[in-house]
Amino acid sequence: MDSKSQIMKSMEPLFEKAKQDNLWLHSSYQDLWFSPEELEELQSQGKHLWWAENWVLKSPHEKIAELERYKQNLDKEIEAIKAKAGIK
Fold first, then answer.
1. Which domain holds residue 32?
2. Among 2, 48, 50, 64, whose Cα sits 20 to 30 Å from the Cα of 88?
3. Whole-prediction pTM value?
4. SS3 at position 26
5. How many structural domains compose the chain?
6. In the prediction, which pLDDT does 1 show?
C-alpha cells in the first residue's frame, strides 16, 4: 500500500465521525478548516494529504463564531477610520 493510500485509510474513522456528528476537520497548521466531503475530495487529488493525527474534529460553528468576531473588529476599524477622515 502506498503512502497516499495509507494516509487516506488512517482518515476513514475521522471522516466517518465527522459526517455522523456534523463536524469539520481542522488542522492548526495554517488554520485550515474543511468539511469531510471537501477534505476527502482534496486528499483524493493529493492535497492536504496528512496523517489523521494532524486533524481535529470541530464544530463548524466555532469557525463561524471566529469569523463573526473578525467581522465585528473590521467593522469597528472601518468606523474609526471613517470618523478620523470625516467620512459618513
1. 3-85
2. 64
3. 0.84
4. strand
5. 1
6. 81
